[in-house]
Write a structure and sequence with these properties.
By secondary structure, the protein is of the alpha/beta class. It contains eight helices and nine strands. It folds into two domains: 42 residues, no CATH class; 180 residues, 3-Layer(aba) Sandwich (Rossmann fold).
Length: 232
């Protein structure tokens, strides 16, 4: 009886307050969120590739993975994740990508998961870190500790457009600090972010973690526009 009432309630809510797919604008059933199963099946998974970085600095990341290619649909979803208060999109996309990546991560055990921190100015403007919920979900699924305060971002590196290459490199080196170094001693840490482009930000974060005693630092992002090249 309860099940029947629940189905009737859901059907009524679906009729009065329908939700629509963010990609095709089709009406979503009450038990689906954000985008429909048809659109989900067409998102370009790429979880078996260990990505290269195009930053000129020494590389401190041990691994770098992405769930998806950065096509127009993924770009649209990530834009909504970052600017439309739709943090659950990070979780939904992670759910789709994690199944095929879990075995790879199990071969690279993780102690802590750290969302790449935002500078305080950007956090105030946006009101949230778009990958916090993604990081918390991944920590639960992978049996790791969710540690969003492990690193503090002390410089807003998004203002680097007027700096030359060497100035950008030096700017990134002082972008992060670790408030409590004892927590990361000999730890294996997974950084999470929305998009991997050059990898400079994540690599700078990995650098400070390694310098303060972390054993291993990897990166997992929702997407990347990089070509499929494998680190040997």
């Amino acid at each position: 009886m309860h099940f029947l009432v629940q189905r009737m309630t859901n059907a009524f809510l679906d009729l009065i307050f329908p939700d629509f797919c963010l990609l095709c604008d089709g009406k979503l059933p009450y038990d689906e969120t954000d985008f429909c199963l048809s659109c989900a099946s067409m998102l370009p998974l790429r979880p078996d590739i260990n990505m290269t970085l195009s930053t000129p600095d020494e590389i401190f990341l041990d691994n770098s993975w992405s769930f998806f290619d950065f096509d127009k649909n993924i770009q649209s979803l990530i834009h909504r994740l970052k600017y439309s208060q739709r943090e659950r999109l990070g979780v939904r996309l992670s759910q789709l990508g994690l199944d095929s990546l879990k075995d790879i991560i199990k071969n690279n055990p993780i102690d802590m998961i750290l969302p790449i921190p935002l500078h305080s100015r950007k956090f105030r403007e946006r009101g949230y870190n778009q990958v916090d919920k993604m990081g918390k979900f991944l920590a639960q699924e992978l049996g790791a500790k969710f540690s969003p305060k492990l690193v503090k971002r002390q410089k807003d590196t998004s203002t680097q457009t007027k700096l030359n290459r060497e100035e950008r490199k030096n700017n990134m080196k002082s972008a992060f600090r670790v408030p409590n170094v004892r927590r990361i001693k000999d730890a294996s840490i997974l950084l999470v972010d929305d998009v991997l482009t050059t990898g400079a930000t994540a690599n700078a974060c990995a650098r400070i973690l390694k310098n303060e005693g972390a054993k291993k630092v990897s990166l997992l992002t929702l997407a990347t526009p990089q070509q499929k090249t494998i680190i040997q």
